[in-house]
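*Target chain*
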Amino acid sequence: MPVDEHVAAPPTLRQRRRAAATQEILEAAERQIAENGPAALSLRAVARDLGMTVQALYHYFPSRDELVTALVAKSYDALADAVQAAVDTTPEGSPLERVVIAAEGYRRWAIDHPELFQLLYGTPLRYYEAPVEGATTQAVRRMSAIFEHELFGGFTPAQLAATETPGLSPEFLAYLGQLPPTGQQVLPTAVTALVMSAWGHMHGLVVLEVFGHTAFLGEHQAEIFRMGMRNTIQDIHSRIPPAEQAR
């Protein structure tokens, strides 16, 4: 029986040990963030928590920036997993409802992990710069791709190309056309503008809730969020013409 040359070799003992140690370091860093906030993240404190020296820690993460990048990418992936899980547990139905449920998955993760959400979207860590087109960028695009699929998966390319965004300047639309994709596919510039607007509405409501600014609404915060998402999505879909008009 011929051997498939493309089958990857199993990881070596050394690779498995390194992966396990890396995971322990990330978990210790997450605990520190949960206890003291992202700004207090310290390689020395992480090493102390694990009973290792800082020099030993450098073998896995040569700098704080590399550790932060790994934490941010891991957190974005966890957020994307939560959004995808929300969608996957939803029966096939109206596109509007599926997007709302995806947004609720985003909100729920943020509420359950406020410190990690703050790491992603709170005050930027001093002196930290994410690598261009690095792991954090790819993780963000993965999450964006889920929303874009649910928002626009039921429309044809011709419909998306005919999307109307009155009031936007040609200069702004041209600028959007020069930016990298927000998700995994290249969208018409008008649609990209709608994606950014929708994300701003969703994220703004979540930030207000996570940071306690809408606590006066109590248990009704979920209802306000759901209403806001339904209105936003309905507005977006109303700007995309029916298939028979977009041929």
